[in-house]
Design goal:
Blueprint lengths: L11 H4 L1 H4 L9 H13 L6 H12 L4 E3 L12 E3 L3 H12 L14 H11 L2 E5 L4 H4 L15 H4 L9 E8 L1 E2 L6 E2 H12 L4 E3 L2 E3 L1 H4 L2 H11 L11 E3 L8 E3 L11 H16 L10 H8 L14 H8 L2 H18 L11 H18 L13 E2 L3 E7 L5 H14 L8 E6 L5 E6 L17 H17 L8 E7 L6 H18 L3 E7 L13 H4 E3 L6 H17 L2 E2 L14 E9 L3 E7 L9 E6 L3 E8 L13 E5 L3 E5 L15 E10 L14 E10 L8 H15 L2
Parallel strand pairs: 11-20, 12-13, 12-15, 15-16, 16-17, 18-20
Antiparallel strand pairs: 1-2, 3-4, 5-6, 7-8, 9-10, 13-14, 19-26, 20-25, 21-24, 21-26, 22-23, 22-25
Helix pairs in contact: 3-13, 4-9, 9-12, 11-15, 11-16, 12-14, 15-16, 17-21, 18-19, 19-22
């Protein structure tokens, strides 16, 4: 990838329409990047983070690839080559700073779409040619959220370069969306690679440190050498076409001097430098790349200070100007040997060029980089841990439902550790997205029949829940949530015969199945579908305004976070039959996180003892309640205790005294993480500082509420069928 042609392993990303056209790629987000890297890690268990970080750079990063607009016969070659100025620094990166290769990379670990999306997310280039949409896009960069039309011209248009005008808002590639600003992802990964594999280069004038050279010093060197003037220009903000499905990042300024160090490059350079310098001192020596990114762009790398939203403060404390001037000066020599400019630089002035660049950079950091700061977060971190069954009426405008579901999928912790999802059409129950723990599987067109059959949806949800209960290996401590997205409200017949009966049937036979509705029309139209009409029904407007859709989706996600995980005895099955026995569920919680659990009376009716055990991974606060689904310390009716490696034991033999199974209230539990020993190395740990605990039920029975569910729901379905005639 350090050559003068497109690397052989990347050719398919430039000769296949579905891979080169931006609209067909995966969204350029930090979530997508983490998920792709996680897939690579899972498929390469013998490779450590040091090896994979080098392999990913050498396999997927190639900066400066530009398209020629001269006619190129496809049998003779590609109309693309790494001729942009970004390519020069990338060659220094791969040759000297992070030398290696990708010979051992597992190319079967990700699909071609994922591979090419990864390439474009970590490879830097700027498309400066006029596109034709500037009058629509350029004056709306800060708030541009409408969905763009397909740009087939990216692939098909062939125009001589001399006839093309310059775009007033160029497209910057290699940028990903994060909550804390657009970031050049290639710089972040280069910093991580240099942290795992420091490769100091000693020169007569000092030692070039690869963490600096791979990140912000390398970027400042581009400014120093590409701008032949004493005054240096740094900084260039931009905006996305969408913050939920981002594919295009437009720059505000198009003059050459504004392109050598953009805001996204500043953020990526600072983040990469901090991570590169921090990795040798991490508490966990076997951390994965995905974990580092997940924490740094999330709650913090083992503390609430080491976070992307705090990069300015980290920069102030970590980087001294004189150190940065020296590192930029040293890198100037290496960059100069690989580059070509419109002038011949005087090597004796390299220190002056470096100092001028650093001074302009520092001034812009202090006065021009207007990033979001760390906001006051919720008291604790609440994550969704659920098997989510999504039934969608594809009669919705595609842009509305794509935006809504994109927000949901990206916000409910879809991964191997928390949540999974399946998407069905609402009329036939056909699968749109098969059960998945990856957001990467979501992004496809919903080419299915429109409509919503409430009878069929509820019947399918019941069957899936029964199948899950009967499969002992499928009980993972998740909640089971049915999220239905109808475009039309239930008819009176559906309400009278099916929906009204559903509440009693599901309460008796499927107590751990929760239905959430987000539909059109009046909220009251869906009241009979849900357990709590005030909490579980939401309406989606017909507006295509992204902010409006996001707000509705945000409220839904907040509700999903409150739904407790189900503690289920795998031996009971869907018929709730079985002898008295003991069973245990093992879970993990992160520091300052809280997990909510629910034990339905079917699993402890006439039981003896409930125990919650710490495993010595850190401190925990455990609360129990019979009335509050989210018990916390100081809340009414909650009984709370602290646990480390001991246990809380509760006599539950009288919990259902005088009540039937259906009348007996569940047991609600919350487990909040405190300080961590950072010792979680199991494959089931999302983070090294996860705190392990178990919920243990002793001498408990499997108790059914009434007759088998099959007969009850079948009767309802038959009644509904009769009413159609």
């Amino acid at each position: 990838n350090a050559g003068t042609n497109v690397a052989p392993g990347l050719v398919e990303c430039y000769n296949t329409t579905l891979l080169v056209t931006r609209d067909y790629r995966l969204p350029a987000t930090i979530t997508t990047l983490i998920e792709i890297i996680r897939k690579i890690e899972d498929a390469s268990p013998s490779a450590n983070a040091r090896e994979l970080s080098i392999q990913i750079l050498h396999r997927f990063r190639q900066d400066g690839i530009r398209k020629t607009y001269k006619v190129v016969d496809s049998t003779l070659g590609l109309p693309y080559s790494p001729k942009g100025w970004e390519a020069y620094k990338n060659r220094v990166q791969l040759k000297y700073l992070t030398p290696g290769n990708a010979i051992n990379f597992n190319n079967d670990s990700i699909t071609p779409l994922e591979a090419c999306s990864l390439h474009y997310m970590i490879s830097s280039s700027i498309e400066t040619h006029e596109r034709g949409d500037e009058s629509t896009v350029c004056n709306k960069i800060a708030h541009y959220t409408s969905r763009l039309h397909k740009r087939e011209t990216e692939f098909a248009e062939q125009v001589d370069a001399t006839t093309r005008s310059r775009s007033s808002c160029p497209i910057e590639s290699g940028v990903i969306y994060t909550k804390w600003g657009a970031v050049k992802a290639g710089l972040v990964l280069a910093g991580i690679a240099s942290g795992f594999e420091p490769n100091p280069i000693r020169t007569t004038n000092g030692t070039l440190e690869t963490a600096y050279a791979s990140t912000i010093a390398g970027e400042l060197s581009e400014v120093a050498l590409n701008q032949p003037s004493v005054t240096k220009t740094v900084g260039n903000d931009g905006g996305w076409n969408s913050t939920l499905v981002p594919k295009y990042y437009f720059l505000e300024k198009s003059e050459n001097d504004n392109l050598y160090l953009t805001d996204a490059e500043i953020r990526g350079g600072l983040d990469g430098l901090y991570l590169g310098l921090s990795i040798p001192n991490l508490k966990s020596s076997d951390m994965k790349i995905s974990q580092i990114l997940d924490l740094y762009y999330g709650r913090g790398l083992f503390n609430d200070t080491a976070r992307a939203c705090n990069r300015k403060e980290l920069m102030q404390n970590l980087v001294q100007d004189e150190k940065l001037v020296l590192q930029t000066t040293l890198f100037n020599t290496y960059l100069d040997t690989e580059s070509q400019y419109s002038y011949t630089p005087n090597k004796a002035t390299f220190p002056v060029l470096a100092r001028n660049s650093v001074e302009s950079f520092r001034s812009y950091i202090n006065n021009g980089l207007n990033d979001l700061r760390c906001m006051a977060e919720n008291e604790v971190i609440e994550r969704v841990a659920a098997d989510v069954l999504i039934f969608v009426d594809v009669a919705w405008d595609y842009s509305i439902i794509e935006t809504f579901l994109s927000y949901i999928i990206q916000s409910i912790d879809i991964n191997n550790y928390e949540s999974s999802y399946t998407v069905f059409d609402g009329v036939n129950g056909d699968i749109i997205v098969n059960k998945s723990r990856s957001i990467l599987d979501f992004y496809k067109k919903f080419n299915h029949a429109p409509g919503f059959d409430y009878t069929k949806v509820l019947q399918l949800a019941e069957n899936l829940m029964k199948k899950k209960l009967d499969n002992e290996t499928d009980l993972t401590g998740q909640a089971t949530i049915v999220l239905i997205l109808p475009h039309n409200t239930p008819t009176s017949a559906q309400n009278d015969v099916v929906v009204n009966k559903r509440n009693d049937v599901f309460k008796r036979y499927l107590p751990d199945l929760r239905i959430i509705v987000a539909g059109s029309g009046s909220k009251s139209s869906y009241n009979n579908l849900v357990t709590s009409a005030s909490n579980d029904v939401f309406t989606i407007s017909e507006s295509v305004d992204e902010n409006s859709i996001k707000e509705t989706a945000r409220v839904v996600v907040e509700r999903l976070k409150k739904l407790p995980r189900n503690v289920v005895n795998p031996k009971c099955g869907s018929s709730f039959t079985g002898e008295a026995d003991n069973f245990e569920v093992t879970q993990y919680v992160e520091p300052f996180g809280v997990n909510y659990h629910k034990i339905s009376s079917n699993y402890f009716y006439k039981g003896q003892t409930l125990k919650i055990r710490g495993q010595g991974y850190g401190s925990l606060t455990v609360c129990t309640s019979r009335t509050d689904a989210n018990p916390r310390a100081n809340s009414t009716g909650a009984n709370c205790k602290n646990v480390v490696s001991d246990e809380i034991s509760t006599d539950i033999s009288g919990y259902c005294s005088g009540d039937s199974v259906a009348e007996c209230s569940p047991i609600y539990i919350s487990v909040e993480g405190g300080t961590s020993q950072v010792r979680c190395s199991e494959k089931t740990c999302r983070f090294p500082d996860n705190i392990k605990y178990s919920i243990y039920l002793e001498n408990v029975n499997c108790s059914s509420s009434s007759e088998p569910i099959f007969s009850s729901f079948l009767l309802i379905s038959l009644l509904f069928a009769i009413m159609r005639f």
